[in-house]
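User: I would dearly like some help making sense of a protein record. This is the protein in question:
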Amino acid sequence: MSKIGVLFVCLGNICRSPLAEGIFRDKVRAAGLEDRFEIDSCGTSAFHIGEQPDPRSRANAEANGVYLDHQARQFVGADFSDFDYILPMDSSNYRNVMRLEPVNAHGKIVLMREFDDMAKGADVPDPYYGGERGFQNVFDILDRSTEALLKTIRTEKGV
């Protein structure tokens, strides 16, 4: 049985996408489905390759009971064949991913907030230049969105 690949994408892979990865991992683990998923995150830029998530993202995640353990990496062409769901955090990341999409891509590319009933299709705001409140807002958005994402995947894949 092949694993279901889920990839979260933002610009630098130090704030939003590793947070989405961590939250989603926790939800998958709580559902007892960790053996069914391959979960990762990446950035469309090369700004932070090899770095841990932003300390503010890590602190916010831990305050919400989520532990982040990820080294930033850049989105690569192989991600199109390695992942079933590719989830850009905003419209800019979405356009960057779509520019690279090969003809034979099988991954489903969907904006993260397509799964957020409070603001369907909106961007996940980048908290990098903001304060603690911005990081908590992003956590809340991703918590809702990943919950709905998991429900959708379970329905689509029969998991």
